[in-house]
Amino acid sequence: MTTPLVVSVVLLSSLAALPALVWAGYLFVLTLASQRRPPLPPRSEVRFDVVVPAHDEETGIADTVRSLLSVEYPKDRFRVIVVADNCADATASRAAGAGATVLERTDPVHRGKGYALAHAFERSLSDAFADAIVVVDADTTVSPNLLGAFAAHLAAGARAVQAEYGVRNPFSSWRTRLMVIALALFHVLRSVARERLGVSVGLRGNGMCFASSLLREVPHDAFSIVEDVEYGIRIGLRGYRVHFASEARVLGEMVGSEKASRSQRRRWESGRAALARAYRGKLVAAAWAGSRAPSERRIALDLALDVFVPPLATVVGVTLAGLVASAVVARLVGAPRVVAAASAPWALALLLVVVYVARGVVLAGVGPRGIVDLAWAPVYMVWKVGLSLAERTRGGKKGKSTGDAAEWVRTTREAETQSATREGG
């Protein structure tokens, strides 16, 4: 017989599961829409400035410049510009030696990637050489068709474009192998789906392209740690979506050591959390504004959902905790069928997330070894959730988030880690 207590337990469990169901439902909708479209044929009419912001990147900057200069695009229609920002090493000379135009910038107060980009954009716009500006990180190699693909999307009407962002060093450690799958989920699956749905795919910081006219209309004055996400939201609020050039790739180096990973992840998580607090109200308001065009409201709604959905490790952790807690409480007050009823919404959310991850594994193309590497996922998840909790505790003690700080906090590169290990051994 059903009792008020049993009904209350089932109802409370269902209400508690609503956030997890919304998160998982959003990811599942993207999974269903994650079929790639045929690529656009490359074009070559657009003139580009390719900007590489760099802070103490003497180890790999020459490789990046050489990769950019070797793209299959008319050589008189693009320039490679390295911003050697507050550097204390040979970044500038090595970039120049590899064939780049170098802008040296020294400002002890205004430091960070956002300021370096603003400096380069101002120079590019004043030169009036380029129709569009591309941003590539200093640890990156690019596919030969990068500029041709960007030119095609710009010719089709795009004002902002994001290339596929992958892992340059997938076999450095189990962390980098997991990152192949993680980026397939976040940078490929989500981007392919959002492109098909006609909303903004967002900016990823590496492999971005902006029409010069867009930068004049919406200046890039985004200076937070996650300046890419911030600018993507700002242009989204102006009604512009970021298109996805899935046919072009940039491969960035991912950190393999725990110490460097912890530093990088902490900055990224805190930055996104601060950005969510700053913009979620504006995005929701824009999504409901009757004065906006339907396409603009759709872009704002999707961006709002994107900032509301926490990192995948948090989604899985909350869902598993809710599943266990609901089963335990329901078992204390009722029969097994009560346990099933109370646990059902949590189980559904978990199933939707599993489907999402499985699709990401397929898109990653990691093969059997990558699937075996998923055994590390629980360890990685616990590590990430622990970092998130520690960051919240630290932010609470300081009274503010660290995500708003604009500073170059350079991640140690893999080659440097290996060199230090050899010297220490």
Characterise the protein shown here.
The structure is a single chain. By secondary structure, the chain is of the alpha/beta class. Helix content is 58%, strand content 12%. Strand 1, helix 3 (61-69) and strand 2 form a beta-alpha-beta unit. The longest helix has 31 residues, at 258-288. The chain starts with a helix and ends with a helix.
Order of helices and strands: HHEHEHEHEEHEHEHHEHHHHHHH
| Sheet having the most strands | 8 strands, mixed
- The CATH architecture of the domain at 33-308 can be named as Alpha-Beta Complex
Strand tally is 8
User: Please, what is the average pLDDT?
Assistant: 86
The number of distinct helices, counting runs of at least 4 residues, comes to: 16
Helix content: 55-70%
Give the neighbour order of strands across the main sheet: 3-2-1-4-7-6-8-5
The top level CATH class name of the domain at 33-308: Alpha Beta
Note poorly predicted spans: 398-405, 418-425
Q: Specify the CATH homologous superfamily of the domain at 33-308.
A: Spore Coat Polysaccharide Biosynthesis Protein SpsA, Chain A
Strand proportion? 5-15%
Fill in the CATH topology of the domain at 33-308. Answer: Spore Coat Polysaccharide Biosynthesis Protein SpsA, Chain A
Alpha carbon gap, first and last residue:
70 Å
Query: In angstroms, what is the radius of gyration?
Result: 23 Å
Anisotropy-based shape: globular
What structural class do you assign from the helix and strand content? alpha/beta
